[in-house]
Amino acid sequence: MNIVIGMSGGVDSSVAALLLKQQGHDVSGVFMVNWDEDDEFCTARQDYQDAIAVAEQIGIPLEKANFSKEYWDGVFENFLAEYSKGRTPNPDILCNKEVKFKAFLDYACDLGCDAVATGHYASTDIVSGRTHLTRAIDQNKDQTYFLHAIDRSVLDQVVFPLGQLPKPEVRRIASEHGLHVHSKSDSTGICFIGERNFREFLSKYLPSKPGEIRTLEGHLIGQHPGLIYYTLGQRKGLGIGGVKGYPEAPWFVVGKALESNTLVVTQGTDHESLYSCGLQTDQFNWLADCPNSVFRCSAKTRYREPDQDCEVTLLPTGGVTVNFDKPVRAVTPGQSIVLYQDQICLGGGVIERVTK
């Protein structure tokens, strides 16, 4: 096939391109620019040089395409809007939906490709005559959580070469073929934030309003610089210590009262206020046929968390309610819940409300 692969300059997309080339496909690479290249904290310039070197070594063409407008309009504005509401968004999910498997896919199709590929750890399988998104063999690296929001129709046009490989094997292949990125560290966090201080970055775009930190009982124990800097379940960076009348134990965020601009905290890693019995989404993106109006499956409310057994009920609005068999820690509005039937990713949606 004629395959266009998104190359980030990292080891995963580099090995994915190499494997496709070895399989006899007509492969070309595209380096996606999703953020202002003049930003001193963005690593895009070095990543681009790494992608060029790999493309030359394995013998495929590489071009650069700018999707920064699509990223700003489809990802970053949502990122800011969600934070301004006191929620915690996941921009990587929107990036896959709006940029990598929409704008980039359209761009690649204009180049005449049969399919696009990425270095994601995921797979596609034909089940009952339809293409489904399925988990990668490396469960520790599986990225289907971040792919749940893409349009189901694109699955027939996507190739994930790393779906059947564990990460150590990917690095071994890169080293064996002399790819200089074989030991390059995995990218973490959000590209447009990079290594900078998160609070400093966010303050450039959103006004922060200092307020009070209170316990569940309403006791004033400190001040916060702005609710936008905190998420449910957070322990680090609260600046609380040595509170008179309380034991020397960690404090955790259990709520954000927007009306009073109050950060609500409590002590105890397993305090009941940190747990939720269920949640609701207003919309849900299905990547597979919905089993029934009420059905059982497993779910993730955060990347890398263990699967949680649950019962799902469809709502007339297009969303779902999810009731967990056991209470789940730090379920956070703005994040996503993703549902699974064994290895098949059923889809997911943004968490709107939680049930204690």
Task: Describe the protein in words.
This protein has 356 residues and is an alpha/beta fold. It has three domains: 2-183, Rossmann fold (3-Layer(aba) Sandwich), CATH 3.40.50; 208-269, SH3 type barrels, CATH 2.30.30; 273-355, Translation factors (Elongation Factor Tu (Ef-tu), domain 3). Helix content is 24%, strand content 30%. The protein contains seven helices and 18 strands. The chain has helices spanning 11-22, 44-58, 68-84, 91-110, 144-147, 167-176, 198-203; strands at residues 2-6, 26-33, 62-66, 115-117, 123-127, 130-134, 158-159, 211-215, 220-224, 251-257, 262-267, 275-281, 285-286, 294-300, 308-314, 320-329, 336-341, 344-355. The strands form four sheets. A six-stranded antiparallel barrel has the order 12-16-15-14-17-18. A five-stranded parallel sheet has the order 3-2-1-4-7, sandwiched between helices. Helix 1 packs parallel to helix 2 (44-58), helix 1 (11-22) packs across helix 6 and helix 3 packs antiparallel against helix 4. The longest helix is centred in the N-terminal third of the chain and has 20 residues, at 91-110. It starts with a strand and ends with a strand.
